[in-house]
Amino acid sequence: MIAWFLLALYIAALFICLPKIFAKAGEAAWKGAVPLYNLVVWNKILGKPWYWLVLLLVPGVNLLMLIIYNVNTSIALGKRTLKEHVIMVLVPWVELSNLAFHPKYKWVGPIPPGQRKRNLLGQWGDAILFAVIVATAFRAFTFEAFTIPTESMEKSLLVGDYLFVSKLSYGPRLPMTPVTFPFTHHTLPLTDHTPSFTNWFKLPYMRLPGFGKPQKGDAVVFNFPEGDTVVANFQNMSYYQLVRMSGRDNLVNRHRVVFTLPDGRKGSRPAGDILVRPVDKQENYIKRCVGTPGDTIEVVDGVVHVNSKAEPLVATGQYAYDFVVKDPFNKRVLKDQYDITTTDVTEDNGIAEIPLTASNAEALGKFGNVVSMTREDKPRGAYGAKDFWPIFPNNPAFNWSEDNFGPLWIPKAGASIKLTAANLPLYRRAITAYEGNTLDEKNGSIWINGVQTDTYTFKQDYYWMMGDNRHRSQDSRFWGFVPYDHVVGKAVLVWLTVDPEKGGFPSGIRWKRLFTRVR
Q1: Which domains are seen in the chain, by residue range?
Q2: What is the spatial distance between Cα 406 and Cα 298, in angstroms, rounded to a whole number?
Q3: Interval 380-422: pLDDT, tens
Q4: CA atoms of 372 and 413, how far apart (whole Å)
Q5: Which among 27, 32, 230, 319 would be 20 to 30 A from 183, CA to CA?
Q6: Which residues, in sequence order, are CB contacts of 285 under 8 Å at separation 6+?
Q7: Whole-model pTM over 0.85
Q8: For the chain, how are helix, strand and coil distributed in percent, rounded to 5?
Q9: What 8-state DSSP symbol labels residue 90?
Q10: Positive or negative, the Cα torsion across 101, 102, 107, 112?
């Protein structure tokens, strides 16, 4: 609220001060009171190129541009020291009024490019600030670089792939948290969990028109839906996952995460601070879209069915296979001949577990040391005896597993659903966390925003995202739907790829994958 008040105060100051400033510059004073036209005139008297106006109209970026315009106005009115510019940045409401109404400040105009009187630091500061603004605008509204950090999409996308993600494919999302440290996502450089953004000024969700919406088969980058709350020492998991695993009492009251050791004993570690993140600062995930709004999704023996039609895994996708072997696999052979990541191979007492493409599975099944090979397929009820339910909707009433799941209807904007005690766990988080409603159950009845009801109409579209590496992916099977307002863009191009197992850059460059389209 304070941020919006200060912004409103600044805009009011502009409309009051610009007529006076324009008059000092030899322009008609009335031009300073005409919305948008006053920006054109302001740009003209400061001697700036026309494309600055485009940046001035871009949400989020325009806040930085206004700082530049304020400083350049002070320069044109004779204030040219670093101290004076810092004051203008910190209190523009006061300084604009001072420049506009005090008679001692005369219009001397912007510094001509060939007659720079500012020191080298000031000149470099201007250049760097403008470069940051242009790069930020490009990154926010066109393409952004993204790195594949985990094996959840192998072998379609590999650990070490560097991608370009198109914001234009689904429409650029306007910044919701515009006050942030440049070129960071949610954490300041050289820190473990210090936020790189501030929540005191936020904008509502808006999206510019794009070329379409996510389609089945797209590799989509999105903000992790459950990532609105994490704990500092376990940021690769959501707060909700840790609560399900450790129990709320341990995590909230004792500030510890409880886990099971390989030998069955219980262990624990400090959880760290609880971190709350807005939508656009939640962790970026990349998965393949397998279900779109209005579809009914089901997984049967590891095969996805959409609207009762089987959708086989892409050729580059992987399932996990269990091997009974006479002798251990030669990991060098697996890597060199089949491009199997050696860290993916786990072996113990004649049992091996490896995620494989269909072609690699067929080849390895013929090895002389293999006694048997079985594709993993957890049946329904596989987690019935566990202390927590890791599969969405994380409720004991649903006996689903990652290989046998659903059927489940995916919400669609404008579509209504009849709510019952049985299906409420499936849609509770969408109704509350993603669409901002309150929901209560009283005496067998459902109350939304204080009104008793048995139906709900969804406000936005939702998607079902899954990793191509089916048994090594934390995806919608574990935490549910992806709301459309969480969608960032479409992965379109691998511009660099480096195999960490071969020494990283430059020795590990995968030359054949450079500048290949993401499929």
Answers
A1: 2-121 (no CATH), 309-375 (3.30.70)
A2: 5
A3: 988 875 557 889 999 988 999 999 999 999 999 999 999 999 9
A4: 48
A5: 230
A6: 221, 222, 223, 224, 465
A7: no
A8: 35, 25, 45
A9: H
A10: negative
